[in-house]
Amino acid sequence: MPKTSARLLALLSLLQTRRDWSGAALADRLDVSLRTVRRDVDRLRELGYPIAAVKGPEGGYRLSAGTELPPLLFDDDQAVALTVALQIAATTPGSGLAEAAERALNTIRQVMPSRLRHRITALDVTAVERPTTRPAEPVDGGALLSISAAVRAREILRFDYGSDGTKPPRRAEPHHVITWDGRWYLVAWDLDRDDWRTFRVDRMSLRTPNGPRFTPRALPGGDVAAYVTGVFRGSGDPSGDWPCQGTVLLDLPAATVARYTREGLVEQITPDRCRLTLGSWSWPSLAAAIARYDADIHVVGPDELADAFAYLARRFARAAAGHTATR
Fold this sequence. Notes:
Blueprint: H1 4-17, E1 21-22, H2 23-30, H3 34-46, E2 51-54, E3 60-63, H4 76-90, H5 98-111, H6 114-122, H7 141-153, E4 157-161, E5 170-180, E6 183-190, E7 195-200, E8 204-207, H8 224-233, E9 244-250, H9 254-259, E10 265-270, E11 273-280, H10 283-291, E12 297-301, H11 303-325
Antiparallel strand pairs: 1-3, 2-3, 4-5, 4-8, 5-6, 6-7, 9-11, 9-12, 10-11
Helix pairs in contact: 1-3, 2-3, 4-5, 10-11
């Protein structure tokens, strides 16, 4: 029989792997008696682990949520995944959780076995945000938790939005908390506008208590990522597609174009030629985005894209002529 401390850790590890365990199953896995299992469960409870007794023909145990966070056990893959997630949270601005994530990361590193510590040291992850004209406003971590709790509980939120509090509070059915381009947003059904809206969390001042519970509505398109992408692109399309999409052939290697293409499809035609399918919010902006690759272009389609190139050519010709005339 293993020592008591090792047996307790093994018991705790089993309780974390699935919701319910019968006493007999635990005794069989640990190769001990039912009496020993009951005694070890009592020891874990004394250490702060909320282990509930499950009623039934055989009886059993369940590791449930408690009022405090007891020590946890992670296998190697879970420890690596948790460390990577904390690294990203610690280097992502605007969430209000960076400091807490850094402290949690240091705690995990201190107790991590050397074999795992070496793996994590080799994998140093940093979240890099795109440059913006204005830095994102910091978001209170407590506000994020309160909004997320309302989403989970399906409770109507009341809040002031970007005002001095003199206007009536907004009322909305919260559905998803998302992050986009360094900012945090709430996707919700606006009860006063009778439509879907996205609210910046840093501009929300929550009022308490929350409103009554609600029955969730179906998000347009059914997918929050596609819906939000469509909203911020200005397409109004729940699929998230750009309103203008076109295809061209570029006299550049596909590997070169792919390095500078954040969105779009790049296909190799020959070693020195590729097909690029890209989208934008207007045809002239799409043509300008393609022109930045600085290569000969053949428009595959549609005709609107070819017309946009002709329009830009005339505009650029006028700009060049105006510059020459002022010399």
